[in-house]
Design brief:
The complex is a heterodimer of chains A (503) and B (752). By secondary structure, chain A is an alpha+beta fold. Chain A folds into three domains: 6-169 and 264-280, Beta-Lactamase (2-Layer Sandwich), CATH 3.30.450.60; 183-247 and 287-380, Beta-Lactamase, CATH 3.30.450; 393-495, 2-Layer Sandwich (Beta-Lactamase). In chain A, 36% of the residues lie in helices and 21% in strands. Chain A has helices spanning 43-63, 106-124, 127-133, 138-153, 183-198, 222-236, 238-242, 260-270, 351-380, 409-412, 417-440, 481-495, and strands spanning 6-7, 13-19, 33-37, 71-73, 77-85, 88-95, 156-157, 160-161, 176-177, 206-211, 214-218, 291-293, 299-301, 317-319, 326-334, 337-344, 393-398, 403-406, 448-453, 459-465, 468-474. In chain A, strand 5 and strand 6 (88-95) form a beta hairpin. The longest helix of chain B has 39 residues, at 416-454. In chain B, the strands form seven sheets. In chain B, strands 1, 2, 27, 28, 29 and 30 form a six-stranded mixed sheet that branches. In chain B, strands 15, 16, 17, 18 and 19 form a five-stranded antiparallel sheet that branches. Chain B has three domains: 23-314 and 342-369, 7 Propeller (Methylamine Dehydrogenase, Chain H); 382-477 and 527-606, no CATH class; 668-748. Chain B has 752 residues and is of the alpha+beta class. Chain B is 40% helix and 21% strand. In chain B, helix 6 (395-411) packs antiparallel against helix 7 (416-454) and helix 8 (459-470) crosses helix 9 (488-513). In chain B, 43% of the residues are buried. The chains are: A alpha+beta (503), B alpha+beta (752). Chain B: One of its GO terms (cellular component) is late endosome membrane. Chain B: This is Mic1 domain-containing protein. Chain B: Residues 40-155 form the Regulator of MON1-CCZ1 complex N-terminal domain. Chain B: Residues 555-724 form the Mic1 domain.
């Protein structure tokens, strides 16, 4: 799968980050641009992309100052806009090709922009704050460059970047996948989480507990949970640590992922240009294969250690989104269980030593409980296909809680292209409906039910109700719409506590 | 408690500096001063003390212990008295007149008869009454045991069985039904018999350990140095080794005697008491007492040695009377001041389990534990609470202390692990009591039926028989040890009912094989028939069979136990604590989670109040993510209370409100769900739901009002139409008229 062809060094994909407030004077336009991919595109071409985007933003904000511009559908390209911070915009330009393979869902692409920006903020703080510190923009440019290139390398298949296409329409980026646990285990988990938290005394510790690539518990606010979860799945879980070969993961990397060498070469290929600066001294949290499991069960890395500015500690420091508090990030792993906990930097006086004391404290207090929890979770773990429902291919999203659950990627792969294309189309419709409803009555969720009989006689269904969305493809199903709605009802009653049952 | 302690402090002269003690005797004592008394005898079978005079015998009930109790008196024929004991049915009185004869006197008729030793070579060491089915009284002689049954018609004793062996001296307690016979040069070889209600169980012979002071010396064990005690229903024997300065303990199992370990002693004179299953070792010379709780077979004392105190002495009386200077009161004053000086006096006689007889003053003290002082003396809260939870005599105080301790450790923000352990102790103790309680209720009725069906005339005896069969020796007496006579049969029923059928069947089988030695006594003929001497071997086999399947020993806790239910934990720990700790709810939530974990592992239901409080705390702390997780994973079990609290706490948070709504829906609380839906503004959805689930309890005006406030005429029209179509007679109501009018106004408004 995954033939959406955005090959390197073509103009199939362009990606830029720019600051509206910079480069206001003629001749200084280049100063606006904080990041551009492909970096070796001539400046005039880069400027024309940024200039067009800027123009459109300025124009549309006359009518809608709050949310100026989301997308431009041109003849040959789609421009996806994302306002990352005030005046900071991210724009992705994807080529529309006649091939069916490059059918995008704009919302899915925007989620990519949002994700990379959120992760960037988590490790480096906001772009604005970096620009404040270094008005020339040199620092932010080199940070953005390494960070986004590392991020994009995850989409690299062979020599091509595969952005989320219609193939991924039964996935939802920017949501969390949760492990369903029984009450007894849930209590044990809570007990563990509470013990970890209590280790902080007056300082507020937070934790995030994962089993495999699934979230078990969190005490962080939703945004930070999403970011840490995404990072853990990318780099920290046992699955991410050992190899990236298994087809099972929330990102559904059904495609065999690129080797380290390939990603490195991808990076090197594009370095040595005006944007990258001296990337060797730059913190690269998303760089591959820099994390490993230490003897004491804690994950160690050689990313932060190498970083000159922070040489006293190899413990990563992250920014919490809501409070902008700086936190040490520690990760402990026992078999399939990963415990991430964050400790306020302000609560620790002596960086490296202090963190080690905290680690030891957590080990002393919680390691037994972790063993117990891991054992219980493993016992109840249904494997990669635990959440497969025979006959259904589904995506269930709880928008309020940013939780999603979907059919396992291997099962989604069995769907025909036609079904997936129809689903993408349907999801686009729902996206539009949703954004309209959002403007009409922000506090009131609308119920929506769409059932489509696709060309290949599959039922493609979307239901939304009070903050929950359900997308479903039923192939080889009966032809009556009654059958389809019964199928939804059954699914809803059994797996969603009746949330989608017709009221 | 504290009031008692403080009031007693100025009184006690012995230790004026911070009078602290873990055990105490309480004023007033029982006085048994009878003119012409010829000594005092302790009849532990009837729980009375007996003081004979020349022609009368006075007896005082000591259970329950009431100092003011008046003695009952019976007339008595004259003669020397070595020992005197009432029969267990209080119809006979037996008086040992010499080393060879015992005189029996019928209390009602006054008839007497005498039983003598057969040969002159043997002499009588003593005797005791028994409730063994086989016999009524046992004579202990230098040549062994004689077991007699009493024939009320002929008014004579009938020899049932004889056990031949050399006996130097013996010890017996009715509580354990165990008689230990000492033999050998050093008197350290022991044979034990338990005369339980099912028959006689002979323990394997064993020797006690005695250290030698020199190579050739052979110390001789005295009967004063051996104590039989019953703790938590287990029977132990304690033996003082004067040379090694150790107190050895042995535990009796049905087919083994196992040495348990040794406690150090610090005094040449030692006495042992048991109060509420706590072992008190009095170091008489040192005038201190050391407490042991041997429930967990631990050899370490509960707390440091402290003196025994006299409490409750009326100081004001003595002060006042001194100034009055009347003769009678003056003697009272002297008497009181004497009392203060006699703690561990030479005339103190310790009676098992918990009495002290002051022979010279002719008073009887009962020992008490100061649970509060014990609790305060240890810093290991979990084990303190564990200890308190096992107390039965002062259950209320123990419970009170447990609650107070729980509150304190939470308020002091002790580490979570400690609080968790404390909660575990309380919850598992509660679970235990629940198990035994339920077990009892469930099994009682069917059990009763089974036992009466098999042998009609002895239901109570049957219960006991099976109970003591069921487990180790002494099984049937463990509850009596707690001094709760009323619970006696309930207790044995609960412990033995499983084995009732087995036990009884094996029991009756022997009936068919051997039918000899008939000694008809009263109505219990049948029982006696099945207990001829030769049946002993069968019993041993049966006992071994049963010991494997024996019910695990559970502690019986009735209303008088200090267990704390999760409900009480909520009202007496969390509620008060929550008010004081309003500042930081996170810690308290952690404790609630620990409570839930503990309760869950013991499979105990928790009252929704606890869930509601958890929701409140989390919401107050704005930990909405965690709250969501707890609800989704059903850690906080769904209930109407929780759902309504979610709606309430979620006023600022839509997600939490939604969780509350979902919970109402999932619980099928249609009315609440619909009302809440309408409040959220989802009145159209609510209407659909009403129709689907045929809910008729919600007033149409509620929907109409909601629709009207949306200012959308379409919606209002839809709602009106809905009720017109589905609610018969709606178009004639005032609601219809009023809202129809409003609707027309709304639709006309834009036009005009």
């Amino acid at each position: 799968m995954g033939l959406s062809s955005v090959s390197i060094n073509t103009e199939d994909l362009q990606f830029c980050v720019f600051d509206l407030k910079r480069g206001q004077y003629e001749g200084q336009e280049l100063d606006k641009i904080l990041f551009f991919y492909p970096a070796d595109l001539p400046f005039p071409s880069q400027l024309s992309v940024v200039g067009l985007s800027e123009g459109l933003i300025t124009f549309t904000s006359i009518f809608s100052p709050e949310a100026p511009c989301e997308v431009i559908e041109a003849n040959r390209h789609s421009h996806v806009f994302y306002q990352a911070e005030a005046d900071i915009w991210m724009v992705m330009v994807v080529e529309k090709s006649k091939e069916v393979e490059s059918v995008w869902r704009i919302d899915a692409l925007r989620k990519v922009l949002k994700e990379v920006h959120s992760l960037f903020m988590m490790f480096h703080g906001s772009i604005k704050s970096l620009l404040m510190k270094d008005p020339t923009g040199g620092v932010v440019r080199s940070h953005l460059y390494t960070f986004i290139m590392d991020y994009l390398s995850d989409f690299l298949v062979g020599k091509k970047l595969h952005l989320p296409s219609f193939r991924d329409s039964l996935k939802e980026r920017g949501t969390i996948e949760m492990l369903t646990v029984g009450r007894e285990v849930a209590i044990e988990v809570q007990s563990l989480v509470r013990v970890v938290e209590s280790c902080g005394g007056n300082a507020q510790y937070h934790s995030l507990l994962m089993f495999q690539d699934l979230l078990v518990s969190t005490t962080l606010c939703p945004d930070d949970t999403i970011n840490l979860f995404a990072y853990a799945v990318l780099r920290l879980t046992p699955h991410a640590l050992s190899s990236r070969q298994s087809s099972w993961s929330y990102r559904g990397k059904g495609n065999s992922r690129s080797s380290t060498e390939a990603t490195a070469s991808f990076f090197e290929q594009h370095s040595g240009n005006s944007w990258s600066g001296d990337h060797r001294s730059i913190l690269r949290p998303l760089q591959h294969d820099r994390w490993s499991k230490g003897k004491d069960g804690f994950l160690v890395n050689d990313i932060w250690h190498a970083n000159s500015g922070n040489s006293t500690s190899s413990t990563p420091v992250i920014y919490l989104q809501q409070t902008e508090e700086r936190m040490y990030l520690c990760a402990y792993q026992h078999r399939s269980l990963t415990l991430l906990f964050v400790v306020p930097v302000s609560s620790i006086i002596n960086a490296e030593q202090g963190v080690n004391v905290v680690k030891q404290l957590i080990l002393d207090n919680a390691s037994l409980k972790m063993l117990k929890v891991e054992e219980k979770l493993s016992k109840g773990w249904g494997g990669e296909n635990a959440y497969h429902v025979p006959g259904y291919r589904y995506l269930l999203v709880d928008v309020d809680q940013n939780i999603s659950r979907a059919s396992p990627p291997a099962k989604v792969d069995t769907l025909t292209k036609d079904s997936l294309l129809s689903l993408t189309k349907l999801r686009k419709e729902v996206d539009i409906e949703k954004s309209r409803a959002r403007w009409d009555s922000p506090d009131h969720d609308r119920d929506l039910e769409i059932c489509i009989r696709a060309k290949n006689n599959a039922w493609v269904i979307a239901r939304t109700t009070r903050g929950k969305e359900l997308y479903m493809v039923l192939e080889n199903a009966n032809e009556t719409v009654l059958y389809a709605s019964d199928a939804v009802e059954k699914f809803s009653n059994r797996y969603c506590n009746g949330a989608f049952s017709l009221d | 408690m504290s009031a008692i302690a403080s009031s007693s402090q100025p009184v006690v002269g012995l230790s004026s500096s911070g009078a602290l003690s873990h055990a105490y005797i309480k004023y007033p004592p029982l006085r048994y001063n009878i003119p012409g008394s010829r000594g005092l005898f302790y009849d532990d079978g009837n729980k009375i003390i007996v003081s004979p005079t020349n022609n009368q015998v006075f007896s005082w009930k000591i259970s329950p212990f009431t100092p003011a109790i008046a003695p009952t008196s019976d007339s008595l024929s004259e003669g020397p008295i070595l020992s005197i004991k009432f029969s267990l049915d209080s119809k006979l009185i037996a008086i040992q007149r010499s080393n060879h004869e015992i005189q029996f006197q019928h209390l009602e008729t006054g008839e007497t008869f005498t039983q003598k030793c057969k040969s002159e070579s043997e002499s009588l060491l003593g005797f005791f009454w028994t409730d063994c089915l086989l016999c009524d009284i046992v004579f202990v002689k230098t040549s062994g045991l004689d077991l007699f049954a009493y024939n009320s018609e002929l008014n004579m004793l009938h020899l049932v069985e004889t056990r031949k062996l050399n006996v130097n001296w013996y010890v017996y307690t009715h509580e354990s039904r165990l008689v230990l016979l000492a033999s050998g040069m050093q008197c350290k070889a022991f044979t034990g018999f338990q005369l339980s209600s099912v028959g006689i169980i002979q323990l394997p012979k064993f020797e006690m350990v005695m250290a030698k002071s020199e190579a050739n010396s052979k110390p001789i064990l005295a009967s004063e140095d051996v104590y039989i005690i019953t703790v938590y229903g287990r029977i132990y024997c304690l033996q003082v080794d004067r040379v090694a300065m150790l107190l050895h303990s042995y535990r009796f199992y049905c087919d083994a005697v196992v040495q348990q370990g040794s406690l150090p002693i610090y005094s040449s004179k030692i006495a042992v008491s048991v109060v509420d299953n706590v072992l008190l070792v009095h170091q008489v010379d040192a005038k201190v007492v050391i407490l042991y709780d041997i429930f967990l077979d631990s050899q370490s004392p509960i707390s440091a040695p402290l003196p025994l105190l006299l409490r409750g002495l009326p100081r004001s009386t003595s002060m006042g009377s001194r100034s009055n200077d009347k003769n009678g009161e003056n003697s009272e004053v002297n008497y009181l001041s004497d009392l203060e000086a006699i703690i561990y006096g030479d005339d103190w006689n310790f009676l098992i389990p918990d009495l002290i007889c002051d022979v010279s003053n002719k008073i009887l003290w009962k020992l008490h534990l100061d649970l509060e002082a014990i609790a305060a003396s240890s810093s290991d809260m979990a084990s303190v609470l564990d200890f308190l939870q096992r107390r039965k005599l002062e259950a209320y105080q123990a419970k009170h202390l447990c609650l107070a301790t729980a509150r304190t450790i939470i308020l002091e923000r002790r580490p979570l692990s400690l609080v968790a352990r404390v909660i575990d102790v309380l919850v598992s103790s509660y679970a235990n009591s629940l198990k035994t309680g339920n077990y009892f209720k469930g099994s009682r009725s069917e059990k009763r039926a089974a036992s009466t069906a098999l042998h009609e005339n002895i239901p109570a005896a049957g219960d006991m028989a099976s109970a003591s069969r069921a487990t180790i020796i002494g099984k049937s007496f463990e509850y009596e040890g707690a001094g709760l006579e009323g619970e006696y049969f309930q207790a044995s029923a609960s412990s033995g009912s499983d084995l009732e059928e087995n036990g009884t069947m094996g029991y009756l089988r022997t009936d068919t094989n051997i039918d000899t030695g008939k000694v008809p006594i009263g109505t219990e003929t049948k029982i006696i028939e099945v207990h001829p001497p030769s049946v002993q071997a069968d019993y041993d086999g049966l006992r071994n069979n049963l010991s494997g399947t024996s019910v695990s020993r559970m502690q019986e806790r009735q209303l008088t136990s200090p267990v704390i239910s999760p409900d009480e934990m909520y009202s007496f720990v969390f509620c008060p604590v929550e008010e004081e700790m309003a500042g930081e709810p996170s810690y308290l939530v952690s404790i609630m989670i620990e409570l839930l974990r503990s309760a869950n592992s013991e499979k105990i239901k928790v009252h929704p109040n606890i869930y509601v409080l958890t929701v409140q705390l989390l919401a107050r702390n704005e930990q909405f993510v965690e709250l969501g997780l707890l609800i989704i994973n059903k850690v906080l079990e769904p209930s109407r209370e929780v759902a309504l609290q979610l709606l309430e706490s979620g006023r600022q948070n839509r997600q939490i409100r939604k969780l509350g709504l979902d919970m109402l829906r999932q619980l099928n609380l249609h009315h609440d769900y619909i009302v809440s839906l309408v409040q959220e503004g989802y009145y159209l959805e609510a209407l659909r739901y009403t129709r689907k689930h045929k809910v008729v309890t919600v007033q149409p005006s509620l929907f109409l009002e909601a629709a009207l406030s949306s200012k959308d005429p379409q919606h209002l029209a839809a709602v009106l139409r809905f009720f017109s179509d589905f609610l018969p007679g709606f178009s004639h109501t005032s609601d219809h008229k009023a809202y129809y009018h409003l609707l027309t106004e709304m639709t006309l408004a834009p036009v005009s």
